[in-house]
Design brief:
ten-stranded mixed beta sheet; Spore Coat Polysaccharide Biosynthesis Protein SpsA, Chain A; 2 domains; single chain; 37% helix; alpha/beta; 303 residues; two-stranded antiparallel sheet
Length: 303
């Protein structure tokens, strides 16, 4: 095997079938110099046996409970770097990848020392020509993150492009970048963590690139998804933390962005047209107040 060593970071939580399918697709990669670290976030131990039996060479890290997307991936990243990886690739276990996906990403990243992170074109698995993610942009004023291409049919016209962030669903980062900027911000637990990591990468002088020739299929529904209280809470809290991490003035975070979230929560609670959002108003409010109290990490309530 030749070329840089790439270590995949996969998380698992009671999703044996998804994880096995993902690992099988990785086994078909035509870029062979790769390894896998699988972090299990508290699954039933019996559910891990089929994975260990079929893939005995992967590194398995077992946690007693769910330490989040950030905590689990940070464990895998630390192990990967300790074992000599030149790149780490975050990859959701509910994905399957094209056989040339990794080779195309590595070749692209190796072509320019200024490139720090690259990511593939991600499709919906159940609608394999429909795009789920084609790079992301972050509004520089509000920090609102926007995934490009969602729901569009791929017509083959997209070309490689600089973007603000790559989805943590499938993200390849150079070792030197991690050594310079550090691990994923574990305070976020999940949501906004990849946008923050990419922002830190850009602040360190590296570029972020979307590479559409590399392809991944994500097993997520195209149907409009309802938002959970955890989602509302985490997106509210972590967006404010993202802004703080960009060294935004405290007065502006409080009097502009946090105040706007509070106004929105009040509108959800009061106005009839937001009746469907009314149960979520409390969790937007809690997201703001916990940010102001520096309460981060796992949400203080179950799913």
């Amino acid at each position: 095997m030749s070329g840089p060593i790439v270590t995949f970071s996969l998380l698992n939580w009671n999703q044996t079938d998804f994880t096995l399918a993902c690992l099988r697709s990785l086994a078909r990669q035509d870029y062979r110099n790769h390894r896998v670290v699988l972090v299990d976030n508290g699954s039933d131990p019996e559910s891990l046996k089929p994975i260990a039996d079929e893939f005995p060479d992967i590194t398995l890290i077992r946690n007693q409970h769910n330490i989040g997307f950030t905590g689990g991936n940070n464990q895998a990243i630390e192990r990967a770097l300790a074992d000599g990886a030149d790149y780490v690739m975050l990859l959701n276990n509910d994905t399957e990848v094209a056989p040339d996906m990794l080779r195309l990403l590595v070749d692209f990243a190796e072509a320019d020392s200024r490139i720090g992170i690259v990511g593939p074109l991600i499709y919906y698995y159940d609608a394999p020509d429909h795009i789920w993610f084609a790079g992301g942009l972050v509004d520089p004023d509000s920090a609102a993150a926007r995934a490009l291409g969602d729901g569009e049919v791929d017509d083959g016209s997209r070309s490689a492009a600089k973007v603000d962030y790559i989805s943590g669903c499938a993200l390849l980062i150079k070792r030197e970048v991690v050594e310079k900027i550090g691990l994923i911000d574990d305070r976020m637990f999940i949501y906004y963590e990849e946008a923050d990591w990419c922002a830190r990468t850009r602040e360190a002088g590296y570029d972020i690139w979307f590479v559409p020739t590399a392809k991944v299929w994500h097993k997520i529904s195209m149907q409009v998804r309802g938002v959970s209280r955890r989602y509302i809470y985490l997106m509210t809290r972590n967006r404010l933390l993202y802004l703080r991490n960009r060294r935004a003035p405290a007065w502006r975070i409080i009097w502009e962005w946090a105040a706007n979230d509070l106004r929105q929560a009040a509108l959800w609670a009061i106005l009839p047209r937001y009746r469907d959002r009314r149960p979520m108003a409390e969790y937007k409010l809690r997201g703001v107040t916990d940010f102001l109290r520096n309460r981060f990490g796992e949400p203080p309530f179950p799913r």
